Amino acid sequence: MTQKYGAVFKCIAGCGEEYPLDEIVYRCKKCDALLEVAHDTEALQRHDAAYWKELFDSRAGTTRWPYGSGIWSKKEWVIPDISDDNIVSMYEGNTNLFWAKRLGDTLGMKDLWIKMCGTSHTGSFKDLGMTVLVSMVNEMIRRGKKIKAVACASTGDTSAALSAYAAYAGIPSIVFLPRNKISTAQLVQPISNGAIVLSLDTDFDGCMEMVRELTKDESVYLANSMNSLRIEGQKTISIEITQQFDWEAPDVVIIPGGNLGNVSALGSGFRMLKDMGIINRLPRIVLAQAQNANPLYLSYLKNFESFEPTPAKKTLASAIQIGDPVSVKKAIKILKEFDCIVEQASEEELADAAAAADRTGTFCCPHTGVALAAMIKLLDKKILSPKDRTIVISTAHGLKFTEFKTGYHEKSLDGIMGKYANAPLEIPADAGIIRDTLEKEFSRLSGRMQKSR
Protein backbone atom coordinates (compact mmCIF):
# COMPACT_ATOMS: atom_id res chain seq x y z
CA MET A 1 0.00 0.00 0.00
CA THR A 2 1.48 3.35 -1.01
CA GLN A 3 -0.85 5.53 1.06
CA LYS A 4 0.98 7.04 4.06
CA TYR A 5 -0.68 7.21 7.47
CA GLY A 6 0.60 8.85 10.61
CA ALA A 7 0.36 8.27 14.36
CA VAL A 8 1.81 10.10 17.38
CA PHE A 9 1.65 10.09 21.16
CA LYS A 10 -0.85 12.72 22.31
CA CYS A 11 -1.69 14.02 25.79
CA ILE A 12 -5.10 12.76 27.00
CA ALA A 13 -5.64 15.93 29.05
CA GLY A 14 -5.98 18.04 25.92
CA CYS A 15 -3.01 20.32 26.47
CA GLY A 16 -1.97 19.80 22.83
CA GLU A 17 1.40 18.13 23.41
CA GLU A 18 2.44 15.48 20.88
CA TYR A 19 5.50 13.23 20.62
CA PRO A 20 6.75 10.82 17.94
CA LEU A 21 6.20 7.14 18.67
CA ASP A 22 9.94 6.47 18.79
CA GLU A 23 10.47 8.99 21.60
CA ILE A 24 11.01 7.48 25.04
CA VAL A 25 8.13 9.16 26.84
CA TYR A 26 5.29 7.77 28.99
CA ARG A 27 3.62 10.91 30.32
CA CYS A 28 3.06 14.39 28.96
CA LYS A 29 6.15 16.50 29.65
CA LYS A 30 3.97 19.59 29.97
CA CYS A 31 1.18 18.47 32.34
CA ASP A 32 2.19 14.91 33.44
CA ALA A 33 -1.03 13.33 32.08
CA LEU A 34 -1.01 9.94 30.39
CA LEU A 35 -0.59 9.73 26.63
CA GLU A 36 -2.55 7.94 23.94
CA VAL A 37 -1.71 7.03 20.37
CA ALA A 38 -3.52 9.42 18.02
CA HIS A 39 -3.97 8.47 14.37
CA ASP A 40 -4.34 10.65 11.30
CA THR A 41 -8.04 9.88 11.03
CA GLU A 42 -8.47 12.21 8.07
CA ALA A 43 -5.96 10.20 6.05
CA LEU A 44 -7.56 6.90 7.08
CA GLN A 45 -11.01 8.19 6.14
CA ARG A 46 -9.91 8.69 2.52
CA HIS A 47 -10.92 5.05 2.24
CA ASP A 48 -14.49 4.07 3.09
CA ALA A 49 -15.68 1.39 5.49
CA ALA A 50 -16.03 -1.20 2.72
CA TYR A 51 -12.35 -0.78 1.81
CA TRP A 52 -11.13 -1.41 5.35
CA LYS A 53 -13.42 -4.38 5.91
CA GLU A 54 -12.29 -6.02 2.69
CA LEU A 55 -8.60 -5.34 3.46
CA PHE A 56 -8.76 -6.71 6.99
CA ASP A 57 -10.79 -9.76 5.93
CA SER A 58 -8.31 -10.54 3.15
CA ARG A 59 -5.42 -10.69 5.62
CA ALA A 60 -6.99 -12.63 8.50
CA GLY A 61 -5.11 -15.84 9.28
CA THR A 62 -2.90 -15.74 6.18
CA THR A 63 0.81 -16.56 6.11
CA ARG A 64 1.79 -13.23 4.54
CA TRP A 65 4.16 -11.62 7.04
CA PRO A 66 3.11 -10.03 9.33
CA TYR A 67 -0.52 -9.58 8.28
CA GLY A 68 -1.81 -12.97 9.39
CA SER A 69 -1.56 -11.78 12.99
CA GLY A 70 -4.84 -10.59 14.49
CA ILE A 71 -3.07 -7.35 15.41
CA TRP A 72 -0.89 -6.70 12.38
CA SER A 73 -3.73 -7.45 9.97
CA LYS A 74 -4.89 -4.00 11.18
CA LYS A 75 -1.42 -2.45 10.93
CA GLU A 76 -2.63 0.88 9.47
CA TRP A 77 -4.85 1.35 12.54
CA VAL A 78 -2.13 0.32 15.01
CA ILE A 79 1.42 1.45 14.13
CA PRO A 80 1.28 2.38 10.44
CA ASP A 81 4.88 3.33 9.69
CA ILE A 82 6.82 0.54 11.40
CA SER A 83 8.95 -1.64 9.12
CA ASP A 84 7.52 -5.12 8.57
CA ASP A 85 11.03 -6.49 9.12
CA ASN A 86 11.13 -5.10 12.68
CA ILE A 87 7.76 -6.48 13.77
CA VAL A 88 7.97 -9.09 16.53
CA SER A 89 4.93 -11.33 16.15
CA MET A 90 3.87 -14.86 17.03
CA TYR A 91 0.64 -14.52 15.06
CA GLU A 92 -1.21 -13.55 18.20
CA GLY A 93 -4.90 -12.68 18.18
CA ASN A 94 -7.40 -14.42 15.90
CA THR A 95 -8.79 -16.03 19.07
CA ASN A 96 -12.03 -17.97 19.28
CA LEU A 97 -15.29 -16.16 19.85
CA PHE A 98 -16.97 -19.01 21.69
CA TRP A 99 -20.75 -19.32 21.64
CA ALA A 100 -21.47 -20.17 25.29
CA LYS A 101 -24.73 -21.90 24.39
CA ARG A 102 -25.13 -24.22 27.38
CA LEU A 103 -24.07 -21.57 29.87
CA GLY A 104 -26.38 -19.07 28.20
CA ASP A 105 -29.27 -21.54 28.38
CA THR A 106 -28.88 -21.81 32.16
CA LEU A 107 -29.12 -18.00 32.39
CA GLY A 108 -31.90 -17.52 29.83
CA MET A 109 -29.46 -15.96 27.34
CA LYS A 110 -29.45 -17.03 23.68
CA ASP A 111 -26.67 -14.71 22.52
CA LEU A 112 -23.88 -15.12 25.09
CA TRP A 113 -20.31 -15.31 23.80
CA ILE A 114 -16.89 -15.61 25.43
CA LYS A 115 -13.88 -14.09 23.67
CA MET A 116 -11.16 -16.63 24.42
CA CYS A 117 -8.11 -14.36 24.62
CA GLY A 118 -6.33 -16.98 26.73
CA THR A 119 -5.71 -19.11 23.64
CA SER A 120 -3.06 -16.63 22.46
CA HIS A 121 0.66 -17.52 22.51
CA THR A 122 1.48 -16.98 26.21
CA GLY A 123 -2.03 -17.69 27.42
CA SER A 124 -3.46 -14.19 27.88
CA PHE A 125 -4.68 -11.08 26.08
CA LYS A 126 -1.46 -9.30 27.10
CA ASP A 127 0.15 -10.71 23.94
CA LEU A 128 -1.95 -8.30 21.87
CA GLY A 129 -0.30 -5.25 23.38
CA MET A 130 3.15 -6.73 23.83
CA THR A 131 3.67 -7.53 20.16
CA VAL A 132 3.17 -3.82 19.43
CA LEU A 133 5.39 -2.54 22.23
CA VAL A 134 8.29 -4.95 21.62
CA SER A 135 8.05 -4.39 17.85
CA MET A 136 8.37 -0.64 18.39
CA VAL A 137 11.33 -1.15 20.74
CA ASN A 138 12.93 -3.35 18.05
CA GLU A 139 12.37 -0.56 15.52
CA MET A 140 13.77 2.07 17.92
CA ILE A 141 16.92 0.02 18.48
CA ARG A 142 17.34 -0.26 14.70
CA ARG A 143 16.97 3.53 14.50
CA GLY A 144 19.84 3.97 16.97
CA LYS A 145 18.10 4.30 20.35
CA LYS A 146 20.35 3.02 23.15
CA ILE A 147 17.83 0.69 24.82
CA LYS A 148 19.43 -2.11 26.87
CA ALA A 149 16.29 -3.84 28.13
CA VAL A 150 12.51 -3.68 28.53
CA ALA A 151 10.96 -3.89 32.00
CA CYS A 152 7.57 -4.35 33.62
CA ALA A 153 5.83 -4.80 36.94
CA SER A 154 3.39 -7.66 36.77
CA THR A 155 0.94 -9.89 38.56
CA GLY A 156 1.74 -12.62 36.05
CA ASP A 157 0.37 -12.27 32.53
CA THR A 158 2.25 -9.10 31.54
CA SER A 159 5.55 -10.67 32.59
CA ALA A 160 4.82 -13.79 30.52
CA ALA A 161 4.03 -11.77 27.41
CA LEU A 162 6.98 -9.40 27.79
CA SER A 163 9.52 -12.14 28.42
CA ALA A 164 8.32 -14.25 25.46
CA TYR A 165 8.26 -11.42 22.92
CA ALA A 166 11.53 -9.95 24.16
CA ALA A 167 13.16 -13.39 23.95
CA TYR A 168 11.90 -13.78 20.37
CA ALA A 169 13.39 -10.38 19.50
CA GLY A 170 16.66 -11.02 21.35
CA ILE A 171 16.09 -8.08 23.72
CA PRO A 172 16.78 -8.52 27.47
CA SER A 173 13.72 -8.26 29.73
CA ILE A 174 13.36 -7.40 33.41
CA VAL A 175 10.31 -8.48 35.38
CA PHE A 176 9.21 -7.24 38.81
CA LEU A 177 6.82 -9.69 40.53
CA PRO A 178 5.19 -9.55 43.99
CA ARG A 179 6.60 -12.47 45.97
CA ASN A 180 4.17 -15.35 46.64
CA LYS A 181 1.26 -13.49 45.02
CA ILE A 182 1.11 -15.12 41.56
CA SER A 183 0.51 -18.68 40.40
CA THR A 184 3.39 -21.09 39.81
CA ALA A 185 2.51 -21.27 36.10
CA GLN A 186 2.72 -17.49 35.80
CA LEU A 187 6.07 -17.38 37.62
CA VAL A 188 7.67 -20.09 35.50
CA GLN A 189 6.86 -18.41 32.17
CA PRO A 190 9.29 -15.45 32.46
CA ILE A 191 11.85 -17.72 34.11
CA SER A 192 11.66 -20.11 31.15
CA ASN A 193 12.01 -17.29 28.64
CA GLY A 194 15.23 -16.08 30.24
CA ALA A 195 13.98 -12.86 31.83
CA ILE A 196 15.73 -11.24 34.77
CA VAL A 197 13.04 -11.96 37.39
CA LEU A 198 13.01 -9.80 40.52
CA SER A 199 10.66 -11.19 43.18
CA LEU A 200 9.90 -8.36 45.59
CA ASP A 201 8.38 -8.48 49.07
CA THR A 202 5.57 -6.10 48.14
CA ASP A 203 2.33 -6.03 46.13
CA PHE A 204 1.79 -5.04 42.48
CA ASP A 205 1.57 -1.35 43.34
CA GLY A 206 4.95 -1.57 45.07
CA CYS A 207 6.44 -3.35 42.03
CA MET A 208 4.99 -0.65 39.79
CA GLU A 209 6.66 2.04 41.89
CA MET A 210 10.02 0.29 41.53
CA VAL A 211 9.79 -0.20 37.76
CA ARG A 212 8.81 3.44 37.26
CA GLU A 213 11.88 4.44 39.25
CA LEU A 214 14.11 2.10 37.20
CA THR A 215 12.81 3.33 33.84
CA LYS A 216 13.74 6.93 34.58
CA ASP A 217 16.95 5.65 33.00
CA GLU A 218 16.00 5.76 29.31
CA SER A 219 18.15 2.73 28.53
CA VAL A 220 15.45 0.59 30.19
CA TYR A 221 12.10 0.87 28.39
CA LEU A 222 8.82 0.68 30.33
CA ALA A 223 6.44 -2.06 29.16
CA ASN A 224 3.44 -1.57 31.47
CA SER A 225 0.08 -0.39 30.16
CA MET A 226 0.74 3.23 31.06
CA ASN A 227 2.77 2.97 27.86
CA SER A 228 0.20 3.67 25.14
CA LEU A 229 1.82 1.27 22.67
CA ARG A 230 0.35 -1.58 24.71
CA ILE A 231 -3.14 -0.14 24.39
CA GLU A 232 -2.82 0.02 20.59
CA GLY A 233 -2.44 -3.73 20.38
CA GLN A 234 -5.12 -4.49 22.94
CA LYS A 235 -7.69 -2.31 21.18
CA THR A 236 -7.77 -4.83 18.34
CA ILE A 237 -9.94 -7.09 20.56
CA SER A 238 -12.82 -4.75 19.74
CA ILE A 239 -12.05 -4.78 16.02
CA GLU A 240 -11.67 -8.56 15.94
CA ILE A 241 -14.95 -9.17 17.81
CA THR A 242 -16.80 -6.90 15.38
CA GLN A 243 -15.14 -8.58 12.42
CA GLN A 244 -16.18 -12.01 13.74
CA PHE A 245 -19.80 -10.80 13.80
CA ASP A 246 -19.59 -9.74 10.14
CA TRP A 247 -18.74 -6.16 11.17
CA GLU A 248 -21.67 -5.68 13.55
CA ALA A 249 -21.12 -4.31 17.06
CA PRO A 250 -22.37 -6.36 20.04
CA ASP A 251 -24.78 -4.89 22.60
CA VAL A 252 -22.73 -5.45 25.77
CA VAL A 253 -19.07 -6.24 26.45
CA ILE A 254 -17.97 -7.31 29.94
CA ILE A 255 -14.30 -7.13 30.88
CA PRO A 256 -12.44 -7.64 34.18
CA GLY A 257 -10.24 -4.74 35.26
CA GLY A 258 -7.29 -4.14 37.55
CA ASN A 259 -4.74 -1.67 36.19
CA LEU A 260 -7.51 -0.58 33.77
CA GLY A 261 -5.51 -0.41 30.54
CA ASN A 262 -7.71 -3.18 29.13
CA VAL A 263 -10.99 -1.27 29.34
CA SER A 264 -9.48 1.88 27.83
CA ALA A 265 -8.13 -0.27 24.98
CA LEU A 266 -11.52 -1.90 24.46
CA GLY A 267 -13.24 1.47 24.19
CA SER A 268 -10.54 2.87 21.93
CA GLY A 269 -11.09 0.08 19.42
CA PHE A 270 -14.86 0.50 19.28
CA ARG A 271 -14.54 4.28 19.03
CA MET A 272 -12.19 3.93 16.06
CA LEU A 273 -14.62 1.57 14.34
CA LYS A 274 -17.36 4.17 14.73
CA ASP A 275 -15.13 7.03 13.56
CA MET A 276 -14.30 5.03 10.44
CA GLY A 277 -17.97 4.38 9.69
CA ILE A 278 -17.80 0.62 10.16
CA ILE A 279 -20.27 0.58 13.09
CA ASN A 280 -23.01 3.09 13.81
CA ARG A 281 -23.39 2.55 17.55
CA LEU A 282 -21.19 1.84 20.54
CA PRO A 283 -21.76 -1.18 22.79
CA ARG A 284 -22.32 -0.82 26.50
CA ILE A 285 -19.20 -1.67 28.49
CA VAL A 286 -19.29 -3.39 31.89
CA LEU A 287 -16.10 -3.22 33.97
CA ALA A 288 -15.92 -6.03 36.54
CA GLN A 289 -13.72 -5.79 39.64
CA ALA A 290 -12.95 -8.19 42.45
CA GLN A 291 -14.55 -6.93 45.66
CA ASN A 292 -11.16 -7.20 47.37
CA ALA A 293 -9.57 -4.83 44.83
CA ASN A 294 -12.35 -2.46 43.81
CA PRO A 295 -11.23 1.20 43.76
CA LEU A 296 -12.99 1.95 40.47
CA TYR A 297 -16.24 0.36 41.67
CA LEU A 298 -16.17 2.63 44.74
CA SER A 299 -15.59 5.64 42.48
CA TYR A 300 -18.46 4.53 40.20
CA LEU A 301 -20.82 4.56 43.18
CA LYS A 302 -19.99 8.29 43.48
CA ASN A 303 -20.50 8.88 39.71
CA PHE A 304 -16.72 9.17 39.32
CA GLU A 305 -16.75 12.50 41.17
CA SER A 306 -13.60 11.37 42.97
CA PHE A 307 -11.18 8.46 42.94
CA GLU A 308 -9.12 7.24 45.88
CA PRO A 309 -6.57 4.43 45.62
CA THR A 310 -7.28 1.67 48.14
CA PRO A 311 -4.87 -1.04 49.33
CA ALA A 312 -5.86 -4.20 47.47
CA LYS A 313 -6.70 -7.22 49.62
CA LYS A 314 -5.78 -10.74 48.57
CA THR A 315 -8.04 -12.06 45.81
CA LEU A 316 -8.18 -15.28 43.82
CA ALA A 317 -8.18 -13.01 40.76
CA SER A 318 -4.54 -12.18 41.41
CA ALA A 319 -3.88 -10.40 38.10
CA ILE A 320 -6.35 -7.65 39.05
CA GLN A 321 -5.26 -7.36 42.69
CA ILE A 322 -4.42 -3.69 42.18
CA GLY A 323 -5.44 -0.80 44.40
CA ASP A 324 -3.82 2.11 42.57
CA PRO A 325 -4.44 1.56 38.84
CA VAL A 326 -2.18 3.54 36.53
CA SER A 327 -4.74 3.92 33.73
CA VAL A 328 -7.67 5.08 35.87
CA LYS A 329 -8.12 8.45 34.12
CA LYS A 330 -8.17 6.80 30.70
CA ALA A 331 -10.62 4.20 31.96
CA ILE A 332 -13.05 6.71 33.47
CA LYS A 333 -13.01 8.73 30.25
CA ILE A 334 -13.95 5.63 28.24
CA LEU A 335 -16.54 4.39 30.71
CA LYS A 336 -18.39 7.70 30.68
CA GLU A 337 -18.52 7.58 26.89
CA PHE A 338 -19.80 3.99 26.71
CA ASP A 339 -22.81 4.11 29.08
CA CYS A 340 -20.77 2.08 31.49
CA ILE A 341 -21.56 -0.08 34.46
CA VAL A 342 -18.99 -1.05 37.08
CA GLU A 343 -19.83 -4.12 39.17
CA GLN A 344 -17.91 -6.13 41.73
CA ALA A 345 -17.73 -9.82 42.61
CA SER A 346 -16.94 -11.45 45.93
CA GLU A 347 -14.42 -14.29 46.15
CA GLU A 348 -17.18 -16.89 46.38
CA GLU A 349 -19.12 -15.33 43.52
CA LEU A 350 -16.14 -15.31 41.16
CA ALA A 351 -15.10 -18.86 42.07
CA ASP A 352 -18.61 -20.26 41.63
CA ALA A 353 -19.13 -18.38 38.35
CA ALA A 354 -15.92 -19.82 36.91
CA ALA A 355 -16.86 -23.31 38.06
CA ALA A 356 -20.39 -23.02 36.66
CA ALA A 357 -18.99 -22.00 33.28
CA ASP A 358 -16.50 -24.88 33.38
CA ARG A 359 -19.40 -27.31 33.74
CA THR A 360 -20.53 -26.19 30.28
CA GLY A 361 -17.17 -26.85 28.64
CA THR A 362 -14.90 -23.86 29.36
CA PHE A 363 -11.86 -23.73 31.64
CA CYS A 364 -12.07 -20.22 33.08
CA CYS A 365 -9.38 -18.23 34.80
CA PRO A 366 -10.51 -16.48 38.02
CA HIS A 367 -10.56 -13.10 36.26
CA THR A 368 -13.07 -14.42 33.73
CA GLY A 369 -14.96 -15.63 36.79
CA VAL A 370 -15.11 -12.01 37.99
CA ALA A 371 -16.63 -10.93 34.66
CA LEU A 372 -19.14 -13.79 34.63
CA ALA A 373 -20.15 -13.17 38.24
CA ALA A 374 -20.69 -9.46 37.51
CA MET A 375 -22.84 -10.40 34.50
CA ILE A 376 -24.98 -12.78 36.56
CA LYS A 377 -25.53 -10.11 39.23
CA LEU A 378 -26.52 -7.51 36.65
CA LEU A 379 -28.95 -9.95 35.02
CA ASP A 380 -30.51 -10.67 38.43
CA LYS A 381 -30.85 -6.92 39.03
CA LYS A 382 -32.41 -6.58 35.53
CA ILE A 383 -29.80 -3.98 34.63
CA LEU A 384 -28.68 -6.15 31.72
CA SER A 385 -31.15 -7.85 29.39
CA PRO A 386 -30.82 -11.57 28.60
CA LYS A 387 -31.84 -10.69 25.03
CA ASP A 388 -28.70 -8.62 24.39
CA ARG A 389 -25.78 -9.97 22.41
CA THR A 390 -23.29 -10.11 25.28
CA ILE A 391 -19.55 -10.72 25.06
CA VAL A 392 -17.46 -11.70 28.08
CA ILE A 393 -13.74 -11.10 27.63
CA SER A 394 -11.82 -14.11 28.96
CA THR A 395 -8.43 -12.59 29.65
CA ALA A 396 -6.30 -15.68 30.36
CA HIS A 397 -6.25 -19.45 30.06
CA GLY A 398 -7.41 -21.47 33.06
CA LEU A 399 -4.31 -23.68 32.85
CA LYS A 400 -2.36 -20.79 34.37
CA PHE A 401 -4.45 -21.16 37.54
CA THR A 402 -4.52 -24.87 38.32
CA GLU A 403 -3.98 -24.15 42.04
CA PHE A 404 -7.22 -22.13 42.00
CA LYS A 405 -9.05 -24.92 40.17
CA THR A 406 -7.68 -27.68 42.39
CA GLY A 407 -8.38 -25.74 45.57
CA TYR A 408 -11.97 -25.09 44.52
CA HIS A 409 -12.77 -28.73 43.83
CA GLU A 410 -10.92 -29.90 46.96
CA LYS A 411 -12.84 -27.24 48.96
CA SER A 412 -9.57 -25.95 50.38
CA LEU A 413 -9.94 -22.28 49.37
CA ASP A 414 -10.49 -20.03 52.39
CA GLY A 415 -14.10 -18.96 52.71
CA ILE A 416 -15.24 -20.76 49.53
CA MET A 417 -17.90 -23.44 49.96
CA GLY A 418 -17.45 -24.78 46.43
CA LYS A 419 -21.06 -24.99 45.21
CA TYR A 420 -19.95 -26.83 42.06
CA ALA A 421 -17.04 -28.78 43.55
CA ASN A 422 -16.43 -32.11 41.84
CA ALA A 423 -13.92 -34.22 43.74
CA PRO A 424 -12.71 -37.62 42.47
CA LEU A 425 -14.62 -40.61 43.86
CA GLU A 426 -12.19 -42.91 45.65
CA ILE A 427 -13.55 -46.47 45.44
CA PRO A 428 -12.13 -50.00 45.25
CA ALA A 429 -11.13 -51.50 41.91
CA ASP A 430 -14.25 -53.66 41.91
CA ALA A 431 -16.51 -53.82 38.83
CA GLY A 432 -19.70 -54.22 40.86
CA ILE A 433 -18.95 -51.24 43.10
CA ILE A 434 -17.99 -49.18 40.02
CA ARG A 435 -21.32 -50.01 38.33
CA ASP A 436 -23.33 -49.14 41.48
CA THR A 437 -21.40 -45.90 41.91
CA LEU A 438 -21.95 -44.89 38.29
CA GLU A 439 -25.68 -45.58 38.51
CA LYS A 440 -25.92 -43.27 41.51
CA GLU A 441 -23.92 -40.62 39.65
CA PHE A 442 -26.08 -40.91 36.52
CA SER A 443 -29.18 -40.48 38.66
CA ARG A 444 -27.70 -37.46 40.43
CA LEU A 445 -26.62 -35.83 37.16
CA SER A 446 -29.99 -36.46 35.54
CA GLY A 447 -31.78 -34.78 38.43
CA ARG A 448 -29.44 -31.79 38.29
CA MET A 449 -29.91 -31.33 34.55
CA GLN A 450 -33.71 -31.46 34.86
CA LYS A 451 -33.55 -28.91 37.65
CA SER A 452 -31.37 -26.58 35.54
CA ARG A 453 -33.98 -26.68 32.75
Give descriptors for this structure.
globular; six-stranded mixed β-sheet; Rossmann fold; alpha/beta; 16 helices; four-stranded parallel β-sheet; 13% strand; 453 residues
Question: What can you see in these coordinates?
Answer:
The chain has 453 residues and is of the alpha/beta class. It starts with 6 loop residues before the first strand and ends with a helix. The chain has a six-stranded mixed β-sheet with strand order 4-5-13-10-11-12, sandwiched between helices. It contains 16 helices and 13 strands. It has helices at 41-44, 49-59, 101-107, 126-142, 157-169, 184-192, 204-214, 228-234, 236-244, 261-275, 295-300, 328-337, 347-358, 366-380, 402-410, 431-452; strands at residues 7-11, 18-19, 35-39, 97-99, 112-116, 149-153, 173-178, 196-200, 220-222, 252-256, 284-290, 341-345, 390-394. The radius of gyration is 22 Å and the shape is globular. Among the domains are: 97-123 and 231-410, Rossmann fold (3-Layer(aba) Sandwich); 427-453.
Task: Write out the strand line-up for the largest beta sheet, numbering strands in chain order.
Answer: 4-5-13-10-11-12
- Report how far apart the termini are: 54 Å
The ordered H/E elements are: EEEHHEHEHEHEHEHEHHEHEHHEHHEHH
What Rg do the Cα atoms give? 22 Å
Main CATH class of the domain at 97-123 and 231-410: Alpha Beta
Gross geometry:
globular
Examine the secondary-structure arrangement and name the CATH architecture of the domain at 97-123 and 231-410: 3-Layer(aba) Sandwich
**CATH topological fold name of the domain at 97-123 and 231-410:** Rossmann fold
Please work out how many helical segments DSSP would assign: 16
Structural class: alpha/beta
